[in-house]
Amino acid sequence: MYSNLKLPDSRISWFNRSMSLEECENVCASNVSCTTFANTNIRGDKSGCLTWSGELMDIREAPQGDVSGQDLYIKIANLKVIRKCICDFFASMCHVSSSYSNIL
Fold first, then answer.
1. Helix, strand, coil % (nearest 5) of the chain?
2. Is 99 helix (H, G, I), strand (E, B) or coil?
3. How far is the C-alpha of 75 from the C-alpha of 73, rounded, in Å?
4. Secondary element (H or E) of residue 38
5. If exposure means fewest CB atoms within 10 Å of the residue's CB, which of 27, 40, 101, 103 is most exposed?
6. What is the tens place of the pLDDT at every residue in 9-39?
7. Residue from 58, 73, 61 nearest 28 by CA
8. Regarding beta strands 60-61 and 70-74, do their DSSP bridges make them parallel or antiparallel, or are they unpaired?
9. Cβ neighbours of 69 (radius 10 Å)
10. How far apart are CA 73 and CA 55, in angstroms?
11. Residues in Cβ contact with 41 at an 8 Å cutoff, skipping those fewer than 6 apart
12. Phi then psi for 58, rounded to 5 degrees?
């Protein structure tokens, strides 16, 4: 989680005003293209869900003391999936030496 941030550009986003943060996390986790999620109602009951897909644009820290900053939750991919993607890209490296698989 990253705190006190101005949320990214919302052109590639999806929202639902009635979801809890836990439900929002589950929606993001089950969507392969989801990269990040946040609450939409930060001042009230912390309800609502906002998710992003793809690259995050125009994200920055809110000025110190500014209460408009929000928490942003970045989705971390499964290590096995990352390892497979890296091995697929560098196929010869992964098959030549097993010592490289320890690095990945």
1. 30, 25, 45
2. helix
3. 6
4. strand 34-38
5. 103
6. 888 889 999 999 999 999 998 898 898 999 8
7. 73
8. unpaired
9. 19
10. 14
11. 17, 47, 48
12. 60, 50
What phi-psi label fits residue 71: left (phi over 0), alpha (psi between -120 and 50 degrees) or beta? beta
Name the β-bridge partners of 70. 5
Residues present in the chain in total = 104
Residues 91, 96, 101, 104: is their CA dihedral positive or negative? negative
For 2, 13, 56, the CA distances from 62, given in Å and listed in that order, are 11, 20, 16
Domains and CATH numbers, the chain: 2-76 (3.50.4)
User: Cβ contacts of residue 62 below 8 Å, gap of 6+?
Assistant: 4, 5, 6, 68, 69, 70
pTM to 2 decimals? 0.66
- Whether the CB-CB separation of 70 and 24 falls below 8 Å is answered with no
